[in-house]
Amino acid sequence: MSALLALALLAFTSAAGSPNAGLKTWGRFSKLPYPGDKAFLYDTFPKDFIWAVGTAAYQVEGAFEKDGKGLSIWDTFTRGGNRMATGDVGSDSYHNIHADIRAIRQLGVSHYRFSLSWSRIFPNGSRGSHNEIGTNYYRNLIRKLKEIRVQPVVTLYHWDLPEHLQQTLGGWANPEMVAIFRDYADFCFQTFGDDVKFWITIDNPFVVARHGYGTGVVAPGIKSDPDLPFRVGHNLLKAHAAVWHLYDRHYRPRQWGKLSIALSSHWINPSHTRLESLRECQCSLDHVLGWFARPLFIDGEYPACMKERLGSRLPSFSREEREQVRQTADFFALSHGAVLSFQLINDSLKFGQHEDLDLRKLLYWVNAEYNKPPIFVVQSGWYVLGNTKTEDPKHMYYLKRFIAEALKSIVIDGVKVIGYTAWSLIDGFEWHREYGIRRGLYYVDFNTPDMKREPKTSATFYRNVIQKNGFPELPENSPAHGTFPCHFVWGVSANSIQVEEIQKIGVNHFHFSLNWSALVPTGDVAHANTTLLRYYSCFTRQLLQANITPVVTLWHHTRQRSSLPALLDNANRWLNRDTPEAFADYARLCYRELGEYVKMWITLNEPNDEMVSYQEGHQMLRAHAMAWHAYDRDFRPSQGGQVSLALHMDWVEPAFSFSREDVEPAKRVLDFRVGWFAEPIFGTGDYPLGMRSWLRQLNSLDLPVFNEDDHHLVKGTYDFFAISHFSTKLVTHAKEDSYTYTAKLEVQHMIDTTWIMSPRPVVPWGLRKALNWVRERYCDVPVYVMANGVQEDPARFKDSLRVYYLYNYINEALKAYTLDGVNLKGYFAYALNDQRDPEFGLYGQVQQEVIVKASLSNYRNIIRHNGFPILGGAPQQCPSRPQPCSGCQLLVRKPVVGFLTLVGSGVLITLGLVIYYTARGHKECY
């Protein structure tokens, strides 16, 4: 953290607020330490931080003609063209103040942002039409907020201009609107100002100008003049400035409030690293955010990029107007997320660059570009589909992401973010999307007379964040200090034999796989490839001489190929009842020929693949059991080794852990993915009860039944529990995305958007939870993490992501051992070399040269200390391990000279046999 803070302070030494000062943003973030800067920050917000929630009048109030309210441009717009729905009723907040107040109180926010309906107060837009009933509605709302100690943040104009002003004056296209808006604001300050300390004049003038008077996507829906949006924007700026000066001169001295305008923006990343791309990014932001922010916060002028590209299409300010407009905001009110300025920017405003959702970078850019203003995020959030009810984990994780980015902006980047507003309080009319999406923290049942409100999962999450004032670090988040037992197994795994530099890693075990189809091409052990067998025998012996214990897998499942002998591969593979017997014979061959040197065997590696059918899995279980019994009966007495299988076990976490509706799907996925193979062997001798009952509900007969013989054959056929673990997923029962929805299990797969990705999520605590699942299910069974690793660009020899990954995953394994009592016996990093395991290697490869990556040195250091001992503490006292023998130099220094000749001849012979028997198999099919 201290390094990050130092870097942040260094970044601020240059002057801020000068034109294009935000240009340094992209370079600054490209230089921050990776992946440490991407890791989740556990910390809290300042004590006086503002937690808010918001709504807009037209979206939620309803009562569009009640109690003297006049029509707004949205009342008219929703009745024209091909519009399908209106906000006539919305969420009916006009009649449900008590329900909204209850929701606000439940959230625990300090501030509530809402907008005034101009036409409810002045039905025709002018003071002469004042409607006292409408005014009292807002008086009552403010009074009730005060009763629950929530401060109002009041927006004067959130897109719902009185229709009369549009019809008679042409709306914001007419400069006369400046004085009319000032008079409306004057009344609001007089009437409500004693109780309001935060005012927003206009919400998102970019949308009002560009999409109200340019594209016609929102009210009033005008799209006749391509230059009209710039004239409208000009009037909006002058109207805001007039209101600011009014407040500053006449109301601030006694009301002590603050006033700004809500500006919204996307974020954008360069498509290339060239300076030209950065300038295009800067110009894109200038055309959206800078259009209004530059005049208000800097010098009363439009951004140079806009003036250069638009020329005479862009109005100009006189000297007096510049002075009137500049410096007319008391804070920077920023909207971000699912707002129109993000979603409706066409390609012309991206200038060939890539749009992105990055609140943290946007905050930093605003801070640099506009002279470090205090920033109040006055709208932030995402959305879910309109048919979503109270379970909205997608919205919840976007909220988590945006709040976390705001926290990093404060703590790491030094930006003065004073508040955050989740959007919105309740579901309502979503402008051009009508009711097709929902953005509320509270679900509104539009089909009930009282518009019943229910808290969503996002509301519970937001309430918890507010209560904790952020994300305080918990003991389980802190790195653990301690060591593994003296006999702990440290290893590295690879998909194939690779002898280069194994010993330099410092491991005491090496896990690799044999190739059944190469060793026994015909499937008949009487015709085994003795050359390859001798090679394996020689290799395992050499490992032992180097004090590295071989761990051997008999069959490694891959989706690309079955790795079964040719004849079995062409005869229903694992569905063939002869395959388990053939596998047991193959296992006996390996035990007999290699068992003198191999004391740890994996029969099947990751057979529990979702592409494997239940019938295939059943035969794999039988094959494993036969191979285990063969060792137990015929070889264990003389060889004294251990045999088990290794299961793929990525962790599955409920998307919302407090919801039983999500806990059950997570359990179900684990039953189907891991319990499917684990329970018959380590548990009851049958498939998980939850698995059977779920399939029974679906009237599925796919799951085989264990007969009495198979039950006794399979149950208890293990010496340890081995898992391959790489990542974690979230699951929920609420369907949101058909591409990641598993219909058979009725679960939606998703990720936490704050997780580091590469390309799978990096979630170290998932390993600890997986290990505890094994302990809770199968008690004190010895456990090995047989493969654990992360993908990273092979060109990155300073593989900082893998360094981070190994450190944190091994640290979580230590917590499982020392804190949770998991009987953890060993850990294997995956993998040795990029050559055979692309993107996973501790070694890289440039042509014929082997490159040692940074992660290898770090892994070796962890092994050397047997974990993470306390700095300055007494060293762990373990019996010294035997030093490498003098005969190991072949492995250490000259790994390929003698071996490649042997391997080369073995491979050639094997290829010939495989091709021959494959061809023969095809001929026999005819």
From TrEMBL:
One of its GO terms (biological process) is fibroblast growth factor receptor signaling pathway. It comes from the Eukaryota. Keywords: Cell membrane, Glycoprotein, Membrane, Repeat, Signal, Transmembrane, Transmembrane helix. It is found in: Cell membrane. Residues 1-17 form the signal peptide. One of its GO terms (cellular component) is plasma membrane. It is a single-pass membrane protein. Its main location: membrane. The keyword tRNA-binding does not apply. GO terms for molecular function: fibroblast growth factor binding; fibroblast growth factor receptor binding; hydrolase activity, hydrolyzing O-glycosyl compounds. The chain crosses the membrane at residues 896-919. Belongs to the glycosyl hydrolase 1 family. Klotho subfamily. This is Klotho. It comes from Takifugu rubripes.
